[in-house]
Amino acid sequence: QAAEGTPYEIPARVAGALAGAGAVGAGRLLSAPKQNIPSVSDLKSAATAAYKEAEDAGVVIKKTAMKQLGKDIQTAVAEAGIDSILHPRAMQAVKRVLDTKGDVTLKGMDILRRVANGAAGSMDKDESRIAHIILDHIDDFVENIGPESVLSGDAEAASKALSSARSLWAKSAKGKVIEGLFDRAKNRAETIGGSGYENALRVEFRQL
């Protein structure tokens, strides 16, 4: 209103509108409830509880179902071009599944998955690709396991609990990586001073 009738009237009205909207936005931001974001420790505790829930379901998988899983994995990796010399860790993961005799508990299945997951972390991209095929077969098998494949226990409840446990554990691991990033940036900033913390954070996130 103070600029009315002058060349500055239109810019002043636009600026006033923006300032008003900004104030409203800031007010909403300040009054917005904070989300209860779990800490890394919370996530680990929840993952441990979910693993226990899966174990308490008492699932025991029939040896016939395990034998079929081994055949399916063997066929899939053969089609993917697995080689004992080029992909030793992936071959070992396959061997662990094929050498599994008798009925297997859910904990035993998780151990097989860890072996495959270790091979999937290979620096060799081709071996990692093949190991992920093994990993996918194991995950699909556990997540879709039916009553006909188990001797005892609640297969559906165990599958859901195990899937939740892995998801929570993965989030906690990623959270730990981010925590380490901030710690390193802080330590680096203490030797630089000034705006060193912001710069150190940028460096850490770029590396991430």
What does this structure look like?
This protein has 208 residues and is mostly helical. Helix content is 74%, strand content 3%. It has eight helices and three strands, in the order ααβααβααβαα. It has a three-stranded antiparallel β-sheet with strand order 2-1-3. The model has no long low-confidence stretch (mean pLDDT 83).
Q: What is the C-alpha radius of gyration, as a whole number of Å? A: 27 Å
How many helices? The count is 8
**For the residues shown, what is the average pLDDT?**
83
Helix content: over 70%
Strand order of the biggest β-sheet:
2-1-3
Oligomer: single chain
The total strand number stands at 3
- Based on helices, strands and strand pairing, what is the structural class? mainly alpha
Unreliable spans are none
Give the CA-CA distance, first to last residue.
Answer: 51 Å
Overall form: flat
Major β-sheet profile: 3 strands, antiparallel
H-E order: HHEHHEHHEHH
Range of strand content: under 5%
